[in-house]
Each structure stands twice: as structure tokens, then as C-alpha cells.
Amino acid sequence: MKRHEPRPLATQLLAVALLITALAAPASAAPKKIIFDTDPGTDDAMALMLALNSPELDVRAITVVPGNVTAAQGLDNALRMVSIANRCDIPVAAGAQHPLFQKLVTAEFWHGKNGLANVELPPSKCKVDSRYGPDLIVQIVHAAPHEITLVPVGPLTNIALAVERDPSIVPLVKEVILMGGSISGGNVNAAAEANIANDPEAAQIVFQAGWPLTMVGLDVGDKTLLSQKYLDQLDNTHGPVNDFIHAVAKYLVDLSATFGSPGTPMYDPLAVGVAIDATLVVAPEMHVDVETKGEFTRGETVANRRGYVERNVLHGDRYIIEGVDRVLPNARVCVEVDADRFLRLFISRIQGK
Ligand SMILES: [Ca+2]
User: Fold this and answer.
1) What is the value of pTM for the model shown?
2) pLDDT (tens digit, 9 = 90+) per residue, 140-170?
3) Which end of the chain is more exposed for a tag (fewer CB within 10 A), N or C?
4) How far is CA 107 from CA 80, 102, 117, 181, 211, in A?
5) What is the distance in A from the centroid of ligand 1 to the CA of 312?
6) Average pLDDT, stretch 74-96?
7) Opening angle at CA 140, ends 172 and 207, nearest 5
8) What is the mean pLDDT of residues 111-130?
9) For the segment 281-311, what is each residue's pLDDT rounded down to a tens digit?
10) Ligand 1 centroid to 237 CA: how many Å?
11) Cα-to-centroid distance, 263 and ligand 1 (Å)
12) Are 170 and 213 in contact (CB under 8 A)?
């Protein structure tokens, strides 16, 4: 079943890619430094392995947040994954143990009992970093000002805690590329997407912080379906990471099929994809607020597409609209994606690893 011909092709493509990169940006070939904040999580697993196997990215730390699974399970999963990827050099730190103001909701229903599609990875050779996740984020940002991209793909608790502990990191972070939210309906209920719903107050802190922020939401992720065709490609090659991701993806593709979908949405991996190559998506600027009250809408990302709100002024017993006030965008919201190009990129980075 092993195929050896992709290697020279990959080498050729890499040479072409390097040439294009050199011509386009002669002075900036250094990989983008990222902190990956995660609640692993099946799609987190795929996202992490994409990040670890992409030369465009330099993963400086992995911080774990509760969400899809508990904080303890997520930490164990993260450590096992960096171990099979042979990356014990990357610090893996525990962070928040629960959302800021509400009880945790875990999602073994979607991600399997252990959060990793019930795939039992060997015990980790890597040790946990003793630092507290939000503190580690603060430290790394100060050590490399204007160079760190935060890539949170879970509830935003750790990122919000980092901002609360040290707001001076905000202008020092290069950008935030997060998976979360939706501008066209949710998955936990009609309005809210799971990462935001699991900690709406934290999400509102992160969206209003004032840093460059890209929202890779549920609705754009739903356009990136990893189907049987791509699953078969991962079955043709082998390696510890390749085989782990194949097993996870197969679990998800089978699960999606029970809901009548032809593939599994690549939510978290797409956020990493956007960190690798922002041209994969169309992302207009909008002002996004997170609903923290709302009978039916707590956790919804409310996006202003028109860039203004009406100015209502009280005259006697009523308000009169006297004009409109501009609202400034605080996010680039991904609305379209070149799904096939992204899925090909994903497969190419995982195959044979
Ligand atoms: Ca996640």
C-alpha cells in the first residue's frame, strides 16, 4: 500500500513554493510564531497536527482550555499528541479549569469518550510545563513583541485571562486568528456556536480587546467538508501522525454520515489554515459583539454588516432617529473559503507523517 512517488513531487512543489515565497517576500521567510490554545478535541487534533507539520508556522506553546473535554483530559490529550509528533520541545501548559462565569459543558457526545475519537494514543513521553497557561501567553508575547499570533480553537477563557492579567499584551500581539462564532446561526442552539457559548464573557473580552482579530466561524467551517475522497488519501500513506489523524477523521466522517452529511467540517484546522495562508478565505471587516444576555441568544456573535447604528435621540415621549453613527470594525469575519485548496493543503501536510 505504500507509495513512494509523492516524495519527489512534494520536493518539487516545495522548491516552487520556496521560489515563489522568495520572489514575493524576499525579507520575510521566517515562520509565523503561534501560540495554539486548544480544548482537544477531534478537530483540535487535526488542527494541531496541521500546525506542527507546516513550515510556515512555529508553534511556541500549546495552552489547554476546558471545552470539548475537561481541562485534565485535554491536557493529557495534548501531551500525548505532541509525543507522537516527537515535539516534546514545545511547552504544553494547563490553563483555566472552568469558564469565567458558568459551568463547563463538555462534548464527548461529538468527540468520543476521551475527546480523541476514542483513539488510545500511547502515554506521553513529554512533560507538562509547570507554568499557568495565561501567564505563559503573557510571557511569550513580551519575549517576542509584535511577533506572536494567537490561534485559539477552544473557548476563549485562557486568552481573556491573559488579557485581564496583563492588558499591555494587547498591542504587542501580532494578531488573533480564532475558531468560534457564526454570523448565520449556531450549533449548540439556534444562535450560538460551541466555543463562544462555552464562555461568552471571555469571548466578549477577546473580541473587544483591540487587536487585529480574524474570526473563523462555524458557518465558514461548514464549507470545508473532509469527505471520503480525502479520507482515502490518508489511508494510502502511513506514519504515526498520519494514522492517528486518519482514525480521527474516519470517526468524524462516519459520525457526519449518520447526520446525512457527505463529510466532516474542518473547523479548528481551518483556523490554522488561515494562519498558514490568509488567501484561503474571504474575510470582510465587521464589528462583532458577543451576546452575554439574551433569552435565546447568549453566546451569539452579533456582527454589524453595515458599519453603523442609528442615533436615536429622545424628544418628549419618543425617540427620533437623527442620523447614524459609524461603528468601527474589530474583526475580519471569514465568509468564504477555497475549501478544496485548503483540504489539499491539509492532506499534503499530514500524509506520511
Ligand atoms: Ca476546539
Assistant:
1) 0.91
2) 999 999 999 999 999 999 999 999 999 999 9
3) N
4) 19, 16, 11, 17, 30
5) 40
6) 98
7) 50
8) 98
9) 999 999 999 999 999 999 999 999 999 999 9
10) 26
11) 18
12) no
Sequence letter at residue 247: A
Mean pLDDT of all residues belonging to the chain: 94
Q: Name the pLDDT band for 26 (thresholds 50, 70, 90).
A: very low
CA of 27 to the centre of ligand 1 (A): 34
Determine the pLDDT at residue 29: 74
State the distance from the centre of ligand 1 to the C-alpha of 95, rounded, in angstroms: 15
C-beta separation of 280 from 339 below 8 A: no
**Are the beta carbons of 172 and 181 closer than 8 angstroms?**
no
- For residue 228, count CB atoms less than 10 angstroms from its CB and return exposed for 0-12, middle for 13-18, buried for 19 or more: middle
Residue 62 has pLDDT above 90, yes or no: yes
Ligand 1: distance of its center to the CA of 108 in Å? 12
The answer to whether residue 1 scores a pLDDT higher than 50 is: no
Instruction: Say how many Å lie between the CA of residue 180 and the centre of ligand 1.
Output: 9
- Residue that is written with C-alpha cell 473535554 in the block: 69
Amino acid at 307: G
Ligand 1 centroid to residue 305 C-alpha, Å = 26
Percent of the chain scored above 90 by pLDDT? 92
For ligand 1, the distance from its centroid to the CA atom of residue 269, given in whole angstroms, is: 9
How far does the centroid of ligand 1 lie from the alpha carbon of residue 14, in Å? Answer: 30
* Residue among 258, 57, 37, 55 at smallest CA distance from 154: 37
- What are the two backbone dihedrals, phi and then psi, of residue 111, each rounded to the nearest 5 degrees? -110, 0
Q: How many residues appear in the chain? A: 353
DSSP element (H, E) containing 64: strand 57-64
What spacing in Å lies between the alpha carbon of 268 and ligand 1's midpoint?
6
DSSP per position, 206-250:
HHHS-S-EEEE-HHHHTT-EEEHHHHHHHHSS--HHHHHHHHHHH
